[in-house]
Each structure stands twice: as C-alpha cells, then as structure tokens.
Design brief:
Elements (H helix, E strand, L loop, with lengths): L7 E4 L2 E4 H6 L4 H20 L3 H21 L4 H21 L2 H21 L22
Antiparallel strand pairs: 1-2
C-alpha cells in the first residue's frame, strides 16, 4: 500500500480506503455515551437484585473500554487502570451479590472517572449517577 495505491475495500455501495475506514472508528466521546448508560444501568440493576444484568452491563462497559484503548491508544493506560480498579471488583461483587461493597466501589468509580476526565483535560465532564433508574429495562431480579 502506498499513498498512490491505497488499500480499498469495496461493497455494493462503493469503495472506501483503509484510511477512511480507520477514520470512521469511534473515539472516546462516542463510546463514553454508551459507557455512561451501561454504568448507570449496572447500578440500578444491582439495586434491584438483577445481578446478571448488572454484570452484563459491566462486561459490556469493559468491552467498550477495550475498543476505546484500541482507537485512542493515548488513553489506554487510563482505561485499563479504571477497569482494573473499578470494573473488575464490581464484577466480583456482582458474583458475590454484595450490594454494600458494590455501592462503595461504584461511588469510587464515579470519583475516579471524574478525576480521569480532569487529567485528560476534560474537567468540564463531571459524571453523576442519575437519580432515576432507566425505565426501558426490567431491573428487578
């Protein structure tokens, strides 16, 4: 592949270069909306005793973090640190059905996320747990 001869992917809709496809990959701003929603759902699912849903949301959050680390490698260390310090313990607490520990770790996650936003020069992003649970999912056990 050279600049004069780029790799091209073809579909029935047209052609895209590999560079164009790479440019379409979501950055953290896009991924964080889904991460935010999943983190919110996980909390209320745990509150409702739906530990399977809480764990599912946390595993999906971890996957979005991995996607973000791949597409935005400058944030990889921060995303991996959050996963190790917060997501891994939350998953263990889901397995143990330990709501008190889950709530403590979850709140620590909010604090850490907001510190990480500031460290990444996005102090304007201050995440907070919505007071109302999402209404589009059954959150009880």
């Amino acid at each position: 592949m050279t600049e004069d001869n780029p790799i091209v992917a073809r579909s029935k809709h047209g052609e895209l270069t590999l560079d164009q496809i790479a440019g379409l990959q979501p950055g953290l701003a896009t991924l964080m909306r889904e991460i935010s929603d999943r983190y919110w759902i996980a909390y209320h699912a745990a509150q409702g005793g739906n530990w399977a849903l809480a764990a599912f949301q946390l595993r999906a959050t971890r996957k979005r973090f991995a996607d973000g680390a791949l597409t935005r490698p400058k944030h990889k260390a921060m995303l991996e640190a959050f996963a190790a310090k917060i997501l891994d313990p939350l998953l263990q607490q889901c397995a143990a059905r330990d709501l008190a520990a889950f709530e403590r770790t979850y709140q620590d996650g909010i604090t850490l996320a907001n510190r990480m936003h500031a460290a990444a020069n996005h102090g304007e992003i201050v995440w907070k747990l919505p007071s109302r649970p999402p209404e589009h999912l059954e959150l009880g056990s």
